[in-house]
Design goal:
The chain is an all-alpha fold. The protein contains three helices and no strands. It has a domain of about 100 residues.
């Protein structure tokens, strides 16, 4: 790590600031996980802290190692994309699973499921464009993409 002693100030200051921002956001997400009361409230804070905290830390790593290795260190982009994509998806899956569980157990503080009306008019859903009735699919029909 001796080569880091020769790091210019204009590289070191942004890297340090990004690391502090990333660590602070991650800490805030952790505090939100500990302090918030319900499971649904707890989902939000850690996902934001993890996503943006990791993004700032990875950006600091990209800047630092791109300078010290004299080549672009872009493999952090892959990690960043994976974190930014998987964190919200995980949030949605956990939230939906908890909501399904709470509704099945009959918790009173969970809103009821919204009933969806099935389309019975036989139209193709194009409102205001002279929607025409669609024929029902027959058992020997080639499929929903070939019925026109």
């Amino acid at each position: 790590m001796k080569h880091l002693a020769d790091l210019p100030l204009w590289i070191g200051v942004p890297v340090a600031l990004l690391l502090v921002i990333g660590a602070t956001l991650t800490l805030l997400g952790t505090l939100g996980l500990v302090r918030l009361r319900s499971f649904y409230d707890r989902l939000h804070a850690p996902t934001l802290g993890t996503s943006w905290g990791a993004a700032a830390t990875l950006l600091a790593s990209m800047i630092l190692f791109s300078w010290t290795e004299v080549r672009a260190a872009v493999h952090e982009l892959v990690l960043g994309v994976l974190v930014m994509v998987t964190t919200p998806v995980t949030l949605m899956l956990l939230g939906r699973a908890a909501l399904h569980r709470d509704r099945a157990e009959g918790h009173k503080d969970v809103p009821p499921a919204v009933a969806r009306e099935r389309e019975t008019s036989g139209t193709d859903g194009r409102a205001g464009q002279g929607a025409s009735p669609r024929p029902a699919l027959q058992p020997d029909s080639p499929g929903i993409f070939m019925d026109r």
